[in-house]
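User: For my dataset I need records formatted as: sequence, then structure tokens, nothing else. Please produce one.
Assistant:
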Amino acid sequence: MNGHNPLDTIVMDGEEVSFQTGETLFEISERHRKDIPTLCYDKRLDPFGGCRMCMVELEGSRNPVASCTTKASPGMVVRTTSAKLEKDRKTLVELVASENREIATNQLAGFASLELAQLVKRYDAHSGRFPGKKSGQSHDDENPFILRDYEQCISCYRCVRVCAEREGDYAIDVMNRGFATQITTQFDGDLRDSECTFCGQCVQTCPTGALADKKALRATDIAGVIKKTRTVCTYCGVGCSMDILSKDEKIVGVQPAMDGPANIGALCVKGQFAFDFVQHSDRLATPYVRKNDELVPATWDEALDRAAAGFQQATQNHGNEAIYAIASGRAPHEASYAMQKLMRAGWGLNNIDNCSRA
């Protein structure tokens, strides 16, 4: 295979497969479409090995190993599934599920919010098998964006890690140990008093809905099937990909595209939560032009003709240098290109700037 040493192979489920130096057993299994379950894993983050759901049998090893933290070495013989592995995985799911207040989670809560519920269904796990002391305490955080329901927390630490590794904010952390373990902020305060930028990454990586999108959950009682539409954020020129959640043609939430080439699952607070303007009652739905000192509705042709006439009048009265263009930082590259083409080819000017350069 391209770039591979022919000796760099392992045997996985009876099949010889190649690997690149540094690859983990889980990464190899993903390439070969092995369905290994996980709970603490997010491919954007450094491997953690906390949930043990991804354990595999390694020939020569006394116990199963976590595939997400075990790097491949030539000659390994690995089994990704067996009756014993599946039994152990079911037990792990039941241990986690027994501690949570409930398993059912609304898919509006976040991108990964159904992961635990899906594993419970996959293994026909029972949430009452290990009753007893529970950890996690909900935080009545008054911020308008993120719900903090730690009775649903399974201490996978994905939220803490994504905040540190992807955002570099370190706004949330872990305090205490054992059943007293709690996800927290500095001095156990509200998110708005921390370093949190409300990017929502913690919400989108949470596998249980312990951290959830408050704005999207407002649509829980709205009738209709949730539809996802892939688009590009309009707030700046970066080009972050995202999925618009809608019910009956009404936007109810936004989720970042985990495969977005520009953002890889990240959004800023505006891209994540500031979508109400799209269908706001105050949003202009038609162009307006000024007549007799009043703004009146017009057609697009009328508005564009009026704008062109204004440019022509300005150049006749004051010359080309009277015209200056500023392209919006929210415009895509194509629109910015068209703007500079209009100025340079149409008017012979270099009087153009873009507000996002600052």
